[in-house]
Specification:
single chain, 162 residues, mainly alpha, three-stranded antiparallel beta sheet, 3 helices, 77% helix, rod-shaped
């Protein structure tokens, strides 16, 4: 059964202008009009138009696919560039942090060395002080013995020096 341009356009999901364009390029023997003078598409004309529209849709889809691939490729390149910049920034931050940590380790190592030197000096002073302290203790013990034994055998009382 013959179809109108609108019916075929709706069926193929294209505009009426697209069907009209292909219809006008058909040989005159394939173009028909109904009793009211409207363009009517015969089965033969429909097959020809379907073939042309299908070819155009395939070509358009391929072109769109190619554009999408190009767009996707461009987007991927931009994404790669962005990721590379981020990686470079992160490496820079890491290097700065490592340099700071190295400095902190150096400072703490110096402080530890100084602390150990102070500890050694303190221990040496304590060792040097021990003989002096023991000599003084011996002197104090001798003085006590003398005092408790008394001068010339007489014991000293608290009130003797007052």
């Amino acid at each position: 059964m013959p179809k109108t341009i609108k019916e075929l356009a709706d069926e193929l999901k294209v505009s009426k202008q697209t069907i009209q364009y292909h219809y006008q390029r058909l040989p005159t023997k394939n173009r028909q009009k109904d009793s009211q003078g409207k363009n009517v598409i015969s089965l033969t004309a429909e097959r020809i138009i379907r073939g042309k529209v299908a070819k155009n849709l395939v070509a358009k889809n391929q072109q769109t696919g190619s554009e999408k691939a190009t767009k996707t490729s461009k987007e991927n390149n931009e994404l790669i560039a962005t990721l590379r910049r981020e990686v470079a920034d992160l490496k820079s931050q890491r290097d700065k942090q490592l340099a700071t940590k190295d400095q902190q380790i150096d400072n703490l190592t110096k402080l530890l060395g100084q602390s150990q030197q102070l500890q050694l000096l303190t221990e040496k002073k304590v060792e040097n002080f021990k003989p002096i302290t023991s000599k003084k203790m011996n002197s104090l013990i001798q003085i006590r013995k003398i005092v408790s034994g008394g001068i010339f055998g007489k014991s000293i009382q608290k009130g003797d020096f007052l």
